[in-house]
Design brief:
The complex is a heterodimer of chains A (349) and B (446). Helix content of chain A is 74%, strand content 2%. With 349 residues, chain A is mainly α. In chain A, the strands form two sheets. Chain A has a two-stranded antiparallel ribbon. Chain A has a two-stranded antiparallel sheet with strand order 2-3. In chain A, strand 2 and strand 3 form a beta hairpin. In chain A, 46% of the residues are buried. Chain B has 446 residues and is an alpha/beta fold. In chain B, helix 2 links the parallel strand 1 and strand 2. Chain B is globular and about 70 Å long. Classes of the chains: A mainly alpha (349), B alpha/beta (446). At the A-B interface, helix 2, strand 4, helix 11, helix 12 and helix 13 of A face helix 1, strand 2, helix 3, helix 4 and helix 5 of B. Chain B: This is ABC transporter substrate-binding protein.
Chain lengths: 349, 446
């Protein structure tokens, strides 16, 4: 299930292919704005990438360490509001530094709300993270200091630039999002393959056994909460500035937390790239269904209201069918598909 | 094998998705038509408000298209896009339709959500697309020099606060009688609800009434403490700035603590049939501010009834919603769109307008008393005149309506807010925004 490192002998040839794939992927990622128009960038690619990043954040916690969280959006909101206040109140800080600080602030909050995980497990832990969800939504709505006393309690980036390069256009925002995401994906892989990642998985699989072999379970759990929230915090900042343009506390409500949870479940637990498949599914399916209704004449349904509600039903049905047919998520389907193709090619040779 | 089929079907689905998303050319050709992207929320918690509101919009545009043959001969292509009242879906709709659709041009976008209006501010400035939010825009965007693409037409909550105080002064017998009165504002604890704290503070200093501000946390199903506080403070009037379930609960709780309904004045979003009716008998005599006066006695409403409703062409499924606050709001909004197009046609010719032309038109709207009479909208709308300096309209006015247990009665004529009172504060706020964002305010040239 997990993307653990293959043992040595196989690694050598795979390394070359992997490098080519990574380099190719990077080139493709940076060439996207040349091919895609504003619509694709602003309303399809950017939200999918950011939600995928948030999925990685939760997956590190849930998939690799086995801890449940239903407060992911709260940590996103901390990242967004921290970024806003840092940009506003410490204007000398460059954007990348601000993003890192925002991530760290979210990480601290994550560690604090992770403390109950040392004593409680499973769904009970969910309740603690749910507390974070409600606390921060309340905090950012009720203390207008966080939004610089803005009338509507919304925050919007005072300036979105790196070294005088203006990032406000769709292309600029895309580069900000994709560059941050690529770095964080690399970080996620590094963590997962490191000793920390292996210890997380040991805790996930059996925490008593993990502590017996000398893993400091408590520390590792808190670290997992911290790193997960770091990712989520940065994803939140990107969601607010790279995608929405503005945000208020309600942009990070319980619905968003559930969306992230679904991304992890649909994309595949304990994967990195699977999160992007899950995000694509969650972000794009409603849009696709809406566009489909433009093409197919569904007027026999009566009215537009019935049609709009039907889309929700279809969306729900697809999720259920998908989870029954592919309980390990889209990434596992994709991986097995590739392996099947490969073995066919080998056998035909 | 089944695995391979699965993978293949996944790939096929992905390919289909890409085709679906990139092509818009399946539907009819829109060349020569004006696009009206109708942002809907037929699903989600606010759908009950949208359904009559959307129908008012659609019915008026159908009437223009089918009976009047378009706006100066230009047909309007209504293209719905469901946002479910979420900002994410709204942004997708904006991106989908900002550059037109199949040859039909976009002149302006009505986001139908205050949150989305705010979220689109930066994007619209970069894309140069006018964003119009009648009754729900950002008050600081009144300053069109800083916000060239935002149009908070028709109304704002600061003017509303002023209108409330004017009405209370009328009832008390003059502004000098306001001294010593206690006006409590019971507000939905959100950005929207808090918006009247500042203007009421200014007004209370000016007239000497006591300003009591009491928040109600969302959604507001429990208000016993707040109303007891109002009772203890011995308030003379309550300005109820509710939203959703908060309004009927407020009216019922007021009755329970013995506060008279005819001393409560609801906000424009607390003044629909669906706000008063659920409160039952407790709502008898309840007052509300109305910019979208309900009723079916207006000329244009009679025309719509004859040409659209009675011919079965209405978007309404429940005809009892005809002439309600939200339906009439939809009609009024559609009128602002159509009149903006007419204004543009006079300058650019009778053809679909581009966004740049739409912006010019929205900045030069002048719906005067004469035009209102021609539209058959006397009593339904008050004059609306915009300029580069003023994207809201020069005179902001509202009526006070009263619930009689079944429907709303109109109590007053248009009460006009004194625009000069807050103009400097708003300008200063806009200037601060411009500075924070690094925007160079435009200079009015024509």
């Amino acid at each position: 299930m997990q993307e653990s490192a293959p043992s040595k002998p196989f690694r050598q040839p795979a390394f070359g292919v992997g490098t080519v794939a990574v380099v190719g992927g990077l080139i493709a990622a940076f060439a996207v704005p040349a091919l895609a128009d504003d619509y694709w960038l602003s309303s399809i690619i950017i939200p999918t990438v950011i939600m995928g990043l948030a999925g990685i954040g939760l997956n590190l916690l849930m998939g690799y360490t086995g801890l449940v969280s239903i407060g992911s959006a709260a940590f996103m909101s901390i990242g967004a509001f921290s970024t806003y206040n840092l940009l506003l109140r410490a204007p000398f800080l460059p954007l990348p530094v601000v993003l890192i600080f925002a991530g760290l602030i979210a990480a601290i909050a994550g560690v604090i709300f992770g403390l109950p995980s040392l004593r409680i497990k499973g769904f009970y832990l969910g309740a603690s993270t749910l507390g974070a969800q409600f606390l921060f939504e309340w905090l950012f709505t009720n203390f207008s200091w966080f939004s610089n006393d803005s009338q509507s309690l919304t925050i919007s980036a005072p300036r979105l630039q790196i070294l005088d390069y203006d990032l406000q256009s769709a292309t600029g925002r895309y580069y900000l999002v994709i560059a941050t995401t690529v770095l964080l994906i690399a970080l996620a892989f590094a963590i997962v393959k490191s000793r920390v990642g292996r210890e997380w998985m040991a805790i996930r699989d059996m925490d008593v056994a993990a502590s017996v072999i000398g893993i400091r379970v408590a520390r590792r759990k808190l670290l997992s909460f911290g790193i997960s929230s770091f990712f989520l915090g940065i994803a939140g900042a990107l969601w607010a500035y790279g995608y929405l343009g503005t945000a208020d506390a309600h942009a990070f409500n319980l619905d968003k937390s559930f969306q992230i949870l679904f991304i992890v479940i649909i994309g595949g637990v304990a994967t990195i790239f699977g999160n992007f498949l899950g995000a694509a599914f969650i972000v794009l399916t409603p849009i696709l269904l809406d566009r489909l209704s433009l093409i197919i004449d569904l007027s026999f349904l009566g009215d537009q209201g019935a049609l709009a509600n039907l889309q929700h039903i279809i969306f729900g049905t697809i999720i259920i069918v998908l989870l029954i047919k592919e309980p390990d998520g889209l990434s596992s389907l994709g991986r097995r598909g590739v392996e099947a193709l490969r073995s066919r090619a080998r056998s035909s040779n | 094998m089944s695995l391979l089929t699965k993978t293949m079907s996944l790939a096929a689905a992905a390919a289909m998705a890409v085709t679906l998303l990139s092509s818009a050319s399946f539907a009819e050709d829109g060349t020569g038509q004006q696009l009206y992207p109708l942002f809907t929320y037929r699903t989600g918690p606010y759908a009950p408000s949208f359904i009559p509101f959307g129908a008012g919009n659609i019915d008026y545009l159908r009437y223009i298209n089918e009976v009047e043959g378009g706006v100066d001969g230009v047909k309007i292509l209504v293209q719905e896009c469901e946002t479910a009242y979420t900002i994410e879906r709204g942004i997708e709709c904006y991106e989908r339709y900002k550059n037109g659709y199949n040859g039909a041009l976009t002149a302006a976008i009505y986001p139908h959500s205050s949150g989305l209006d705010v979220a689109l501010t930066d994007k619209a400035r970069i894309d140069k697309i006018p964003i119009v939010s009648p009754g729900g825009g950002q008050n600081i965007a009144t300053d069109g020099r800083v916000f060239p693409y935002q149009y908070p037409l028709v109304f704002d909550y600061w003017s509303e606060a002023q209108i409330i105080v004017d009405y209370i002064a009328q009832q008390a017998g003059g502004y000098d009688k306001l001294k010593g009165l206690k006006i409590a504002t019971l507000y939905h604890d959100s950005g929207y609800g808090r918006d009247t704290i500042e203007p009421l503070g200014i007004l209370s200093k000016k007239y000497g009434f006591e300003d009591i501000q009491i928040p109600v946390p969302h959604p507001g199903e429990q208000q016993q403490t707040q109303w007891q506080q109002i009772r203890r403070a011995n308030a003379d009037w309550v300005f109820l700035r509710g939203w959703g379930v908060m309004t009927p609960v407020a009216i019922k709780t007021a009755a329970r603590v013995g506060f008279p309904a005819n001393r409560i004045i609801g906000d424009i979003w607390s003044g629909s049939e669906d706000d008063a009716r659920p409160a039952g008998a407790a709502a008898n005599g309840y007052l509300a501010v109305s910019v979208f006066p309900p009723g079916t006695d207006y000329g244009i409403l009679k025309t719509l009834k004859a040409d659209i409703l009675d011919k079965g062409k209405s978007d309404l499924k429940d005809n009892s919603k005809f002439g309600t606050v939200y339906y009439n709001y939809g009609v009024i909004e559609a009128i602002t769109f159509v009149e903006a197009l007419r204004t543009g046609h006079k300058k650019f010719g009778n053809r679909p307008l581009t966004a740049a032309e739409g912006q010019w038109a929205l900045e030069h709207l002048d719906i005067d008393q004469k035009r209102i009479a021609e539209l058959g909208a006397e009593g339904l709308i008050s004059p609306l005149k915009t300029s580069i300096d003023n994207h809201k309209g020069e005179t902001i006015a509202a009526k006070i309506i009263q619930w009689n247990g079944q429907s709303w009665d109109t109590r007053t004529d248009w009460i006009k807010a004194d625009a000069s009172l807050f103009a400097d504060v708003i300008k200063a706020k806009a200037a601060a925004y411009a500075k924070e964002k690094g925007i160079e305010p435009r200079v009015a040239t024509n």
